[in-house]
Specification:
Layout: H1 4-20, H2 24-42, H3 45-61, H4 68-78, H5 82-99, H6 102-119, H7 122-136, H8 145-160, H9 164-173, H10 175-181, H11 188-200, H12 204-220, H13 226-239, H14 243-249, H15 260-269, H16 273-284, H17 291-307, H18 311-328, H19 331-344, H20 348-365, H21 368-382, H22 387-404, H23 407-419, H24 437-447, H25 452-459, H26 463-477, H27 482-499
Helix pairs in contact: 1-2, 2-3, 2-4, 3-4, 4-5, 4-6, 5-6, 6-7, 6-8, 7-8, 8-9, 8-11, 11-12, 11-13, 12-13, 13-14, 15-16, 15-17, 16-17, 17-18, 17-19, 18-19, 19-20, 20-21, 21-22, 21-23, 22-23, 24-26, 24-27, 25-26
Length: 500
């Protein structure tokens, strides 16, 4: 119902009644849930730790062995270090071999999966998250909160490693659960991550709506989440060209470690390179195991280094990110590395190779804003060596920025076009860009006359994802609308049949 305070109040009353009635197992069980809800609803690890310690005392005193798995699971939620979370989740999982508690087993698998993602073991973590989600939605659970737990971990894990398409696919797979029981993203943290996901895949309107809801809940119940929510809202404002609003959103949180990357980006946009570098370096020294935040900060620092005349240092940082991304099999880290290396490389041909690799990675990840920014880098690199190609990249960037509502960057792309002697709205020449496998599928469906909603249903993805793919297809083919794209699809189909 969204009554977080009522949840805690009722659980505390239940705990007191169980203790007075000497129902120690139920009292310990309730204490564990008080621990879980204090950390998930309010982000209050002190209260959570207190209730967890009390539950542990009851379990030990009255030999309530069946609750050891749930106790370990609650501890994994309170912890912050990924290695410690993994150990606690494994302990919870081991306990289910004797208790046969399906709910604890699936939650522990989910928690273990998220811990693996945070450690950089992306493939292993995603497999565990997939397994826990599939089993939780199968109906073989006793407690509906298992679906909430698995869904929130899935959302956190997928956004952390930029598996946006997978997150959207699981959201679609959960629609029947949504219709019956409501949205499982109950907690402020989960709703915040949902907003971050929507921002990353380009649905900024829905992202802002969810983030504002999370903001209101956080102000009332869970102030610990405020920096994360405000940081994401500030990112949206910066992309929209509303830098002053972005800075105002972060008032009072300028030195918070969670807002460091956004603060560094704002200083970079203002041209305060020394300030941006200082913020990025300070946070890089504290970042620990969060490889995604590390990669983002390193790219910001690299851009600062380029502006300060240390391009060779920035290129080395880019190569390190590429190596780290490939080792972790985390495409978004590698994409940031390729983009930084390309932006810092003096040779235009070599720079374009790196930037085009980044472009493909960001496009495949379904990150239209990052895709557009990479187009703009390419336009900048090509400006002196190939003005026609530069204009082509600038037009692609302009179209994507305009579609997203990224006015601040739309103006940059328009300025690039003006420097090349072209109007921002001028259509570009036909482009024989290579389509990804997914884009080829969507182009074929366009040729069949399917609408975006029908394509989304056919491919089990969101409508917004289809919209982004269609925009990329139009830009790559150099066509003006869906009808021209459909005609191209038919032409390609006929050509393919002729070859057979």
């Amino acid at each position: 119902m969204g009554d977080f305070a009522g949840t805690i109040g009722n659980l505390q009353q239940a705990y007191s009644e169980f203790r007075r009635s000497n129902c120690y197992e139920k009292a310990a069980y309730t204490a564990i849930y008080l621990s879980l809800f204090h950390v998930t609803l309010f982000g209050n690890r002190s209260a959570a730790s207190g209730w967890h310690a009390h539950a542990a005392r009851l379990i030990q005193r009255f030999e309530l062995d069946s609750l050891f798995g749930l106790l370990a699971l609650a501890r994994s939620e309170i912890l912050t270090d990924p290695d410690e979370i993994e150990a606690a989740a494994r302990e919870a999982l081991e306990c289910t071999t004797t208790s046969e508690d399906v709910d604890v087993e699936l939650c522990a698998l989910s928690q273990l999966g998220y811990a693996c993602v945070r450690q950089g073991k992306i493939s292993k973590g995603i497999k565990l998250l997939d397994e826990s989600m599939a089993a939780a939605l199968s109906g073989d659970v006793q407690d509906m909160s298992t679906v909430v737990f698995a869904s929130c971990n899935m959302m956190h894990g997928c956004t952390d490693c930029a598996e946006f398409e997978k997150a959207v696919e699981w959201i679609r797979a959960s629609e029947r659960f949504f219709e019956t029981h409501g949205c499982p993203y109950l907690y402020v943290g989960c709703r915040t991550r949902y907003g971050q996901l929507l921002y990353s895949i380009g649905d900024w309107e829905q992202a802002e709506s969810n983030l504002k809801t999370a903001l209101q809940q956080s102000k009332e119940y869970a102030p610990g989440y405020l920096p994360t929510i405000l940081a994401c809202l500030a990112e949206i404002r910066m992309a929209q060209g509303r830098l002053d609003e972005a800075v105002r959103l972060l008032n009072g949180y300028e030195t918070d470690q969670i807002t460091a990357a956004v603060m560094a980006c704002s200083e970079l946009q203002k041209g305060h390179y020394s300030n941006a570098g200082a913020v990025a370096r300070r946070r890089l020294n504290e970042v620990g195991n969060d490889q995604l935040e590390y990669s983002r900060l390193q790219e910001v620092l690299g851009e600062v280094e380029i502006h300060q005349g240390a391009a060779s240092v920035a290129a080395q940082h880019g190569r390190e990110l590429v190596k780290k991304g490939e080792q972790l099999r985390c495409s978004v880290i590698a994409a940031r590395g390729y983009r930084l290396e390309g932006a810092a490389t003096a040779d235009p041909d070599e720079a374009c190779k790196k930037l085009n690799t980044a472009l493909v990675r960001f496009r495949e990840l379904g990150m239209p804003f990052e895709t557009a920014k990479t187009h703009l880098w390419l336009a900048h690199i090509l400006e002196t060596s190939d003005s026609a190609a530069s204009a082509l990249e600038a037009r692609d960037a302009y179209a994507l920025f305009q579609q997203l509502g990224a006015d601040g960057y739309t103006h940059r792309a328009a300025a690039q076009l003006r420097r090349l002697g072209e109007a921002a709205t001028q259509p570009g020449p036909r482009r024989n860009g290579r389509l990804t496998r997914r884009e080829q599928e969507i182009l074929a469906l366009l040729g069949e006359g399917l609408s975006n909603p029908r394509i989304a249903e056919r491919l089990f993805v969101s409508r917004k994802t289809v919209e982004h793919h269609v925009a990329h297809i139009l830009a790559k083919l150099g066509v003006q609308n869906r009808a021209e794209a459909a005609a191209e699809a038919v032409r390609r189909s006929i050509q393919k049949q002729g070859k057979k």
